[in-house]
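Demo today. Your pick:
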Amino acid sequence: MDYQKGYLEGFNRHSTTVKSRYIGQVIELEGKRKTGEIFPIEINLCSWETKSGKYLSGIIRDISKRKQIEQQIIDLKEELEVRVDKRTVELEKANDEIRVLLKEMHHRVKNNLQIVSSLLKLQAGTTDEKVARIFQDCQDRIQAMAFIHENLYLKESLSEISIKEYIEPLVKDRIRANTKLRDKIKLRIKLPDVKFNIDTMLPIGLLLNELVTNTLKHAYPNQEVGIIKLNIKIRKGNQAELNYSDDGVGFLREKVRDNPNALGLVLIDSFVMQIDGSMEVNSTKGGTHYTIKFEIPS
């Protein structure tokens, strides 16, 4: 292209009409040095008219350095994107490895707890009935903990557990394990489809284990038909309310608390404290009702 010729043609055209879509705008073109080198330029055209005639002027700037900097920025951006993509792949691989290790950890913890439970069962077989019942209580508590680690091992999430998938099977298992009452107890359970982290779910599971154990031990002394009700409600402001009740014979909490063998009630209070909750207990001859309120960690 003859740059000088093109420039003169364009100048003559604009100087006669003083109209152009480029007037008042900054446009980028290419210039040609005397050496024949092509380089980027920036042109700012303006026009004005006086009594003496119409005028057109332009300011031409060499923007070679600016273009070099812009290209360096583009190159750096592309390099950064490549490095980010590479690092992302590395982090995803590391995350997968961590997930495998955590799953394996939960699996091993569950297996170890099962071994401890089995050892307690074997030991219980060598003692009298009273001591055997104590061993059985310990087994139930260990099973409640093992069930959480099994849940984390089998599910996708490694930090949160579904209330429905953990609590309902746990309570049903505790009832089913009681050969004398399992066919006589009806369970009415209503749970929300939400997840709690393990720090909240573990004490709740152990708490319910104690509540169900106490019901099966003391609420139906004559092994009559009974109903256990359990529901958890999610309130506003990350508040939750757990309601548990049975229709058994009830008990005097003050009297039972003074019993040095009443470990279950001590543990219930302890588990409520672990979730920073509050508890109300109403026990009459028509049954026992627990209302436990606590905050769900965000």
In short: The two ends are 68 Å apart (CA to CA). Helices lie at 3-17, 64-124, 129-154, 163-176, 198-219, 253-257, 263-274. Residues 64-124 form the longest helix (61 residues).
